[in-house]
Amino acid sequence: MKELGKEKLMAESASTKEEVFSLDGVNVYYGDSLAVKDVSFPIYKNEITSLIGPSGCGKSTILRSLNRMNDLIPGARVEGDLQYHGADIYGSDIDPVQVRKIIGMVFQKPNPFPKSIYENVAFGPQTLGMKGNLDDIVEEALVGAALWDEVKDRLKDNAFGMSGGQQQRLCIARTIAVKPDVILMDEPCSALDPVSTYKIEDLMMKLKEDYTIVIVTHNMQQAARVADKTAFFTVSSNDEEGSRTGVLVEFDETGKIFSNPADQRTQDYVTGRFG
Hints:
By secondary structure, the protein is an alpha/beta fold. It has a single domain, classed as P-loop containing nucleotide triphosphate hydrolases (Rossmann fold, 3-Layer(aba) Sandwich). It contains 11 helices and 10 strands. Strands 5-4-1-2-10-9-3-8-7-6 form a 10-stranded mixed sheet, sandwiched between helices. Helix 5 packs across helix 7. It is globular.
């Protein structure tokens, strides 16, 4: 009876989580080519959701769909239902620029502006005309990105003089400086050494207290270490047409995906049998 009560409590707890995104039957096309099809899963507030799978399975395509970055690619279009806090993010009355302000993105390769460390962080708040003391906004963002103690005495230095790991944390600081709701991360550690990777992972665990995070990663150990939920994608090939389409295989608690997945394809991937 106690065990049944525990399971019921866990189920009720899951049902009360706030959904930030809800994807239902989402298809993404590049021209006439179906890049990823029939994707359905929720993304919950103050959790880290990882998207894993082999190259070409649609992970980054789905990630970019969450803040309408695919709009910038000629011929790209999204079909299906993609809700953000209950609103259709692709609705005709939705401003994509506003979407990207509240749903920020950190890219695979650190991409600081050719400006000072201070100017990098201040750029977004200045552009948006955010109220408040700019020095305080910059400091708060650098503290939030676990970078302040390393750069507080050289804020006027060019950002290109920083290490790769520092540059990536600067990009995170630049993202959180404009107070987003969600942070999307597209393989944020793939260009970094193990020490820098650890710092970014540690930072993600702290950031999820204030933000919802979605991360694409090829590093399954990283997904297992940091993610609350994990979506596993694979590639469906049509030999006659020579086309490849990404498909969602399963979505679940990260621990279950890696220890007791429901689909054999997931089992084969996480155990290294393919991919």
